[in-house]
Amino acid sequence: MVPLVFHVGLMKSGSTSLQKAVKSASQVQFISAKEVKATSLRSVTAISKALSRTMPAAPLLPLFVSHEALVTVRAPKLITALAEYPEATVLVVWRPAVERFESHYKMAVTRAGLAQYPNDFYTARTRSFLRTSSREKISSLLRGRVEFLDFSEMRDSPTTFYDRISAMLSLPAGAIQPPEKAYNVAMSIDAAVVALNANIAARRLIGNKKKLVEGHRALMQSFYRIRRKNGVFTQLVESDPQLLAMRDRINAELAEIRDTLSRG
Q: Which SUPFAM superfamilies match (predicted)?
């Protein structure tokens, strides 16, 4: 039987870079989250069917299946479904909950569907992050069947990290190479404030959902073009009392959530 790895989390822990690297490796067969389509699945049977539907009957190459949201949203059902694959490795890339939360928040406020004040986001997401705030909790969710790799190693020593992935797939060192462009530029709090404020304003002014989506897409294209220059956003925030107040509120609530997640 060829080696099989299920990458099931965590979100905001380098999943895009990992998927890009594995997909580029000629010696690996890669199945993505879009093919599994498991975030909307509600039962063990549905997850099992999704896995069996996407898994090749007789894979010739080591197989890497990746869906970074599964451990967060469907962990107990997932591990029951994976009982059909007793030889598979279940992989979680570990990143501390505070770092994941801040990254997830900054991403969320740039999207029209989550353009709410931060406390709404916290209310919806905190429980999920608390469930995965330690390795012990994740191991419990997955009933002990999990291998951890560190996001910090992916970021700081990518060659070593990807050699570990190669070893899981019984491939030689160097078989999976780090992607050339591994990470986007980190979004500052000020950039998140500007994006959040723009989304709130757009929702107030535009009642037509289609126009809102089109306008949001144009806004984000402009936003990402200047995102590398985070100083631009700082100047915008510091010249506007309303944005300064929003920044203070976000920082206060981030401090509160850091404390909550640190206590676990």
A: P-loop containing nucleoside triphosphate hydrolases
